[in-house]
Write a structure and sequence with these properties.
Radius of gyration: 20 Å
CATH topology of the largest domain: Rossmann fold
Keywords: Acyltransferase, Amino-acid biosynthesis, Cytoplasm, Methionine biosynthesis, Transferase
Shape: globular
Oligomer: single chain
Pfam family, one: Abhydrolase_1
CATH architecture of the largest domain: 3-Layer(aba) Sandwich
Structural class: alpha/beta
Subcellular location: Cytoplasm
Number of domains: 2
Catalytic activity: L-homoserine + acetyl-CoA = O-acetyl-L-homoserine + CoA
Family: Belongs to the AB hydrolase superfamily. MetX family.
Distance between the termini: 37 Å
Number of strands: 10
CATH superfamily of the largest domain: Alpha/Beta hydrolase fold, catalytic domain
């Protein structure tokens, strides 16, 4: 099984929700397992902000050999979102006509634009029915939007730590991160690594929304009670910033955080309730008790308005990141969901 992505080029330019046009769009994607002759074992994964198409790498414990979604049983698809830096068209992609990258001029993408690319890829792969569509955070925003758009396409929908509309709180966190990047003078240059120092600071801000007070208390409390500087929590923030800078870029981070801010399933659809009531997939919504970025009330709203949805809440000290970490709890909830779904 190869970790190398496949590539699909959209056959035509992509007109974005904003009215702008991306003349060339390429999407990197990966598949795992084999499609049954009945073609009824497709699991489509929508990834979060800085992830990629290699779901076996970033969601271990849930996807992989002997996991709930085992490629021996399922045909798993994960596509890297447009705007990212893992193979799909993004701010650093070179335009074939001009020979230049867009950098700061890359157009605004909405969650609906990301879904439009997923839909084009699905048609290219000739997948006419999806057994399970799953995503958390920004991935969950894509999943719920797609399920609203194409209610007959998905048999099951699994939404983790996500919402129907990105909150003022979430937008404020994203703006704080973008301000950190914009304060880095190198961001305004046409250099692939421009804004690296700002991205490092942005990641430090983001971590405060991804984890919880208890998580930091448990793992980052300074063991040296005489220390006056260079605390464990401080070095942890720097370390995580360095890790992201090594694998991501500031331009994609700005682009995709702006995309997350646009998420609103009710826009142009007579409101959130009316939009969610379009969904026909059997739906599981999972919240996390300690999630301060997407608090459980947001998942409870999804479950309230999606017809017949099952709601489950995980008790976890890991905050928002719990949807990537608590795979044993998620597996247990999935087992209950599918039993309730298919046992009559």
């Amino acid at each position: 099984m190869s970790d190398e992505p496949h590539f699909f080029r959209l056959p035509r330019a992509l007109r974005l929700e904003s009215g702008a046009v991306l003349p060339q769009v390429e999407v990197a994607y990966q598949t795992y397992g084999h499609l049954k002759p009945t073609r009824d074992n497709v699991v489509w994964v929508c990834h979060a902000l800085t992830a990629n198409a290699n779901v076996l790498d970033w969601w271990p414990g849930l996807f992989g050999a002997s996991c709930y979604f085992d490629p021996a049983d399922w045909f798993i698809v994960c596509a890297n979102v447009v705007g990212s830096c893992y193979g799909s068209t993004g701010p650093l992609s070179v335009d074939e006509t001009t020979g230049l990258a867009a950098y700061q001029e890359f157009p605004l993408l909405t969650v609906r634009d990301l879904v439009a690319v997923h839909e084009a890829l699905r048609e290219h792969l000739a997948l006419h029915q999806i057994h399970t569509l799953i995503g958390g955070s920004l991935g969950g925003q894509q999943a719920v939007e797609w399920a609203v758009q194409r209610p007959a396409l998905f048999e099951n929908l699994v939404l983790l730590a996500t919402n129907a509309r990105h909150s003022a709180w979430g937008i404020a966190f994203n703006e704080a991160q973008r301000l950190a990047i914009l304060a880095d003078p190198s961001y305004s240059t046409t250099a692939p690594d421009g804004g690296a120092a700002g991205l490092r600071a942005a990641r430090a801000v983001a971590l405060l929304s991804y984890r919880s007070y208890d998580a930091y208390q448990r793992s980052q409390t300074e063991p040296n009670e005489e220390a006056l500087d260079d605390y464990r929590a401080s070095s942890y923030q720097r370390y995580q910033g360095d890790k992201l800078v090594a694998r991501f870029n500031a331009h994609s981070y700005v682009a995709l955080s702006r995309t997350m801010d646009t998420h609103h399933v009710g826009r142009g659809r007579s409101g959130i309730r009316a939009a969610l009531e379009r969904i026909r997939a059997r739906t599981l919504v999972i919240g996390i008790t300690s999630d301060v970025l997407f608090p459980p009330a947001e998942q409870q709203l999804l479950a309230r308005y999606i017809q017949g949805a099952m709601y489950a809440e995980m008790d976890s000290p890991f905050g928002h990141d719990g949807f990537l970490i608590e795979t044993a709890q998620i597996t247990h909830v999935l087992e209950r969901f599918y039993v309730q779904t298919y046992v009559h």
